[in-house]
Amino acid sequence: MGSAEFERKKDEKINGVIYDMSPAPGFKHGIINSNIHAIIKNGLKNSLCLVFMENLDFKYHPDINDDYLCPDIMIVCDRKHLKGSFYSGVPKLIVETLSPSTAKHDRTEKKDIYEQAGVQEYWIVSPQGSIEIYYLENGKYILEHSYMLQNDKEEDDYNAEQEIVLKEFPHIKMTLGEIFEGLE
């Protein structure tokens, strides 16, 4: 048997429909996720919470059906909802890094699903250097912060030192420069 048979294809299931997530996103997507994941993982040391990167499905209404999404980054704190390859609790934070094949989904359907599931903080990150941070308020997402990286120190709007703080984990901070480090 070839190893390809054991390779799990990345997909998501929304309203009973399976969406193939191939082709794989570009390397910039991986660099960004790795940067964010490393900072959060370090910040969650000695915590019951865990951070996952692209390897745990989120079953967002397990009482209704087996639909699932596979967020790029997800912080989970309620370990009793971890089973096998999925989490069925409410994540504290979800980050989706856009790729050409997922951008529309991440901004529309997935954003609505995360909002309805009660995810308190949702980030949409673009490999082109932008971040939108949504906070859940009264059951609806409010765009709280929007940044576009300018890392040229000669420019007036230089903002690579701009600090982003996780709402539920205020001790976890990262700069725009750290998030997009290694893309040049």
Give a short summary of the structure.
The chain has helices at 27-43, 103-107, 109-117, 176-179; strands at 11-14, 17-20, 50-53, 57-58, 73-76, 82-83, 86-87, 93-97, 121-126, 130-137, 140-148, 163-165, 173-175.
Give me the side-by-side strand order of the main sheet.
Answer: 3-5-8-9-10-11
Number of alpha- plus pi-helical segments: 4
Helical residue percent band: 10-25%
Which radius of gyration do the C-alpha atoms yield? 17 Å
Broad structural category: alpha+beta
Fold blueprint:
Layout: E1 11-14, E2 17-20, H1 27-43, E3 50-53, E4 57-58, E5 73-76, E6 82-83, E7 86-87, E8 93-97, H2 103-107, H3 109-117, E9 121-126, E10 130-137, E11 140-148, E12 163-165, E13 173-175, H4 176-179
Parallel strand pairs: 4-7, 8-9
Antiparallel strand pairs: 1-2, 3-5, 5-8, 6-7, 9-10, 10-11, 12-13
Features:
184 residues; alpha+beta; 4 helices
Notes on the protein architecture:
- By secondary structure, this protein is α+β, with helices and mostly antiparallel strands.
- It has helices spanning 27-43, 103-107, 109-117, 176-179, and strands spanning 11-14, 17-20, 50-53, 57-58, 73-76, 82-83, 86-87, 93-97, 121-126, 130-137, 140-148, 163-165, 173-175.
- Strand 1 (11-14) and strand 2 (17-20) form a beta hairpin.
- The protein starts with 10 loop residues before the first strand and ends in a 5-residue tail after the last helix.
- The model is unreliable at 1-7 (pLDDT under 50).
